[in-house]
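hey m, so remember when u said the tokens were messed up on ur end? i reran from scratch. heres the input so u can diff it against urs
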Amino acid sequence: MSEFQHISVMQTAELLAAGKVVVADIRDEQSYNTGHIEGAYHLTNGSLNSFMQQFEFDQPVVVVCYHGNSSQGAAQYLVQQGFEQVFSLDGGFESWRTQQPFVSDDRA
């Protein structure tokens, strides 16, 4: 695969339920803590090396941002690093939060 693919909220939920995908959330820390997809990895410039060591290149990855725009660039970057199946969540977390449950780490 030389490019990332787009994926819907429902397709992502199905893959998550089957344990077949890891979600990489690239939003800022405050937004991530306020609400994110359960089990999502908070992928930042600082955690990128750890992410690449923790997950195999054949592990399907869904990249999530706010509205589905920034995730496209990050998804393409992961493809360039060698990940074989990378998706950008259409509509981002804002679309997810209207259709699926999410968790919050915000203690405020």
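this time it looks ok to me. The helical segments are 9-17, 29-34, 48-54, 70-81, 92-99. if urs says something different then somethings off w ur setup not the seq
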